[in-house]
Specification:
- With 316 residues, the protein is an alpha/beta fold.
- The chain has one domain (3-19, 29-310): UDP-N-acetylmuramoyl-L-alanine:D-glutamate ligase (3-Layer(aba) Sandwich), CATH 3.40.1190.
- Helices cover 39% and strands 24% of the residues.
- Strand 6 (90-96) and strand 7 (101-106) form a beta hairpin.
- The longest helix has 16 residues, at 269-284.
- It binds adenosine-5'-triphosphate and magnesium ion.
- The site of adenosine-5'-triphosphate has 19 residues, from helix 8 and helix 9.
Length: 316
């Protein structure tokens, strides 16, 4: 089954480290590491780690864009790009080694016009994927309703749309209706219109989304507590194993990667969510922007399958 990931706001992630962040001083840094980044691109990288295939669709501009394309090519990930004149953005992250704190500088996204974004949809229509995954923010220049347009487009081309984003763009796409949503607690609260959700209200909120036709499947990610899977058939909590946490950067995208890979293999929703938690939690075991190691994810998945059922939230 074909999977396409769409990243409308890609980035070249640059990371380095220094012993201490001191203003005004010249800070000696380690060699710069560069990675292709942005929500959908991360999902493609995660799928590749599981030996799966996907096509990463994104607007690509200037040197940074070309660098992202070649990094993905070297990783064995297919790309299909819309060339744009403006340089693709870059983000910089510096780890302070004495404290293990990460300083993340996110630069403004490259402006994208609606017709450039539509050109990405034209590429996708030709690929005819079974699964279309969009993750991350919308770039400046696009309307907050652009994911809603994609939700409509996905229905038209018969693709199952999996969306992981936040704020108004998430809300408007959910109003149009998508196949799967992966909100965290804050995003779920916003979706059901409450300030803050208590743990014992998460299942009701998730089922409300399904009842309202906003999605067929919802996986609410709960950080160290795993996730809540809900469909029209009911809900289930899937716990996350306890691991030594390094950095949670990329946990959400790793989780989505595990889920869409499982779906493309025809696995049932429970296994999809279990593998999602395994990949998300495996991502927290690595420092910086590194996603997850496949062997960690497989080990955690076995743990969840074996012991997961014995663990329940006391609140549920
Ligand atoms: N501290 C943690 N310990 C174990 N697993 C974790 C932890 N934080 C995140 N995870 C795993 O990663 C998954 C996704 O994390 P989370 O709920 O934080 O998503 P998110 O807020 O969308 O993250 P992101 O900032 O990447 O978008 C969780 O369901 C869980 O499996
Ligand atoms: Mg997230």
């Amino acid at each position: 089954m074909k999977i396409v990931t769409l990243t409308l706001n890609p980035a070249l992630d640059k990371s380095s480290s220094t012993e201490r962040m001191i203003p005004e001083h010249k800070l000696r840094c380690s060699a710069m590491r560069i990675d292709a980044g942005g929500g959908g691109i991360n999902v493609s990288k995660g799928i590749r780690k599981l030996d799966g295939e996907s096509i990463a669709v994104f607007p690509s501009g200037g040197h940074n864009g070309r660098l992202i394309e070649s990094l993905l090519g070297e990783a064995g990930i297919q790309t299909s790009i819309v060339e744009v004149p403006d340089e693709t953005r870059e983000n910089i992250s510096i780890t302070e080694t004495s404290t293990n704190q990460q300083f993340r500088f996110t630069l403004p996204g490259t402006e994208l016009t609606e017709s450039q974004a539509d050109a990405c949809l034209d590429l996708i229509e030709k690929i005819k994927p079974e699964y279309l995954v969009a993750s991350g923010s919308l770039p400046p220049g696009l309307s907050e309703h652009y994911f809603e347009k994609i939700a409509h487009f996905a229905k038209k081309i018969g693709a199952r749309f999996i969306l992981d984003t936040s704020g108004k763009p998430l809300q408007s796409a959910a109003d149009e209706g998508v196949f799967l949503l992966k909100p965290n607690l804050n995003e779920l609260s916003a979706l059901v219109g409450v300030e803050k959700l208590e743990m014992d209200k998460v299942d009701d909120a998730a089922l409300e989304l399904i009842g309202q036709g906003k999605c067929e499947v919802v996986v609410v990610s709960l950080g160290a507590q795993g996730c809540l899977l809900a469909t029209a058939d009911g809900f289930e909590h899937i716990p996350a194993p306890t691991v030594k946490k390094q950095s949670t950067v990329g946990a959400g995208d790793s989780m989505v990667a595990g889920m869409v890979w499982a779906l493309s293999q025809g696995r049932p929703y429970r296994e999809m969510a279990q593998l999602g938690v395994a990949c998300g939690t495996a991502a927290t075991m690595n420092s910086g922007t590194e996603l997850f190691h496949a062997d960690d994810a497989r080990r955690l998945y076995e743990w969840i399958r074996k012991y997961g059922k014995r663990y329940r939230f006391t609140d549920f």
